[in-house]
Records
---
Amino acid sequence: MKTLLLRVLIFGLCLGPAISLLAQDPRTPISSLPYKITAQGSYYLTANLTATGSTSGITISADNVTLDLNGFALVGGGSGSVTGINVPAAQKNILIRNGTVRGWTNGGINASNVTNSVIQGIRLSNNTAPSIFFSIAGLSVGNGSTVKDCFVAQNANSNGISVGNACTVSGCIARANSVGAGIRVLDSCYVVGNISDSNGTGIVMGSGNRIENNSCTFNASAGILIPSGDTNNLVIHNSARGNNPNYNIAAGNRYGTIVNLTPTSTGAANGDLAFSTIVSTDPWANFAY
């Protein structure tokens, strides 16, 4: 019995500091809106939050900030032209992740002035712009930043995802963002492994970008658009279907063969052997189907 009591006492002494450390979360909780972040640090939502006023939901006015939505939602519900998460000045080193931003009237996340930042695992939907206003997007971020694993859908009168120069956009779905582009990038960006479906335009860009392994389907205008005057883009390994047209690439750019794979007279495949229906040997080919 004495041995058992001694073991319990030792276990309690060891566990106590661990419990204390767990209880002292160094992050700052956000439990109501509006909320202004004015100091560097880590912040997190404690619940789903709905706006009631005429200001942005969360405003970030500091560098070196991590904002974790913690799986919760920021929901617009106030009046006027307001943004879910707004970074109005030229901040840097911002991370926004893991949650939903929906129902705002001036874009979901407006971080177009930030640099060297990351937006990850965000679900944005049903945000709007005041009118057809392409400088606003459901999700926007500035130069040298990364957008990954985000779902951006049904944001009216704006682009879906909009990034500055030297950015990466990967693993995202941009769908049914009316009028604007599903994904819009400026110069020297890497756009890889995304789906852009049923937007105004699929992917539109400036100069010097690498556009690779994306799927663009049923956009109202071009699936992949490089406007006249934008040059030195590399377009490889993409697929496009049901756009108008599938590819619209200005002179002065590089691209793999564009192969029309519209399935006419292709046989069925059932079993362990079938011949390829891909009629190109170009390892960089883009496909229309």
Note: The two ends are 77 Å apart (CA to CA).
---
Amino acid sequence: MVRVQLTEQGEQALAHLSALHRDELRRLDTALTPPTWDGELANGTPTPRAATSGHPSPQKKADMLKSSLTALARQQLALAKAASSGRSASTVFGGHENIMRQTVIALTAGQRLSEHENPGEATVHVLQGRVRLGSAGEVWEGSPGDLLIVPDRRHDLEALEDAVVLLTVAKRT
């Protein structure tokens, strides 16, 4: 493994690229947002506020989106390495208002997510590196491609080496 220490100029360039990527994700999110409706035509058909190229047809909401977890993992790990906390995360699907949420989490070697409660059914898919999931005195180690089922109790996650995982959580209703 090769570690690279960025100069201040390199860190600024990385921060600029990260901001550009964030702006691009926002642009894509806006482009995929279905139109809102002003009202109805005389025949009962809804009328969109504005027609924007790239939107799905007014009758059909965009229901499919492709993301590169490999690229996102690489980006999040670079951000984690640049961060004083040694951590970085990005929600790729869902959010607090949804039942299911998927988050890419990057941790540098030795960093951990301290013990916390399980908010619902959860899995950790190891995308890169090695991690250790611990709970109630038990530990499970995961390597790329492994899927760890998070126990329904307090647990923690430690990066044994620079690592990136996809955390999937389905909240209890």
Note: Residues 8-32 form the longest helix (25 residues).
